[in-house]
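Summary for the steering committee. The consortium agreed at its last meeting that each partner would contribute one worked example illustrating the joint modelling workflow. Our contribution is presented below. We chose a case with several input lines so that the handling of multiple components could be demonstrated. No manual editing was applied between input and output; the record is shown as generated.
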Amino acid sequence: MADQKKLERLSEAQAAELMASVPDWTLDGDVISRGFDFKDFRGSLAFVESVADIAEEQDHHPDITISYSRVSLFLSTHKAGGLTEKDFALAAAIDRLL
Amino acid sequence: MADQKKLERLSEAQAAELMASVPDWTLDGDVISRGFDFKDFRGSLAFVESVADIAEEQDHHPDITISYSRVSLFLSTHKAGGLTEKDFALAAAIDRLL
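What follows is the complete predicted structure of the assembly.
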């Protein structure tokens, strides 16, 4: 039941409200994103591996770009056609890695 | 000396010629790219880790995007302002992973 609810597409107002919980992320339409800078490529990769562990746990996977020492993450719930609580839960868990 | 030469920007004709050695890659301006499909996110990540090892060995790093079971790699030599032999050497080494 709770999981079902997490998969409901959020309204724009709901998404805007949840943005307060992840202030380092940027809301752009149906996607929230954040960039992260590391010392080098290995730093990027170690971070991506940690994100992957959380993604597997939550069964929810960000789109990831790695450009040497910079990693960008993009979250949206394709099944729901937009943002859901799952995206914000994953973003918050990723923030806790840092 | 050989390494110096590898870092010289290739002419369009030279790049087009070297494309024959990596037929699964696409040449688009100053970048060569290839997409790879895996079974799932873990498959993508394992591949990215293998690519990372080669990238560190060659001290040359592709831009990488991971979208669940799909990985895309983009190669160019920023220092040279375009494609160099290093890009084609890395592409060929990545192809040998598969």
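Chain A has a mean pLDDT of 94. The longest helix of chain A spans residues 41-58.
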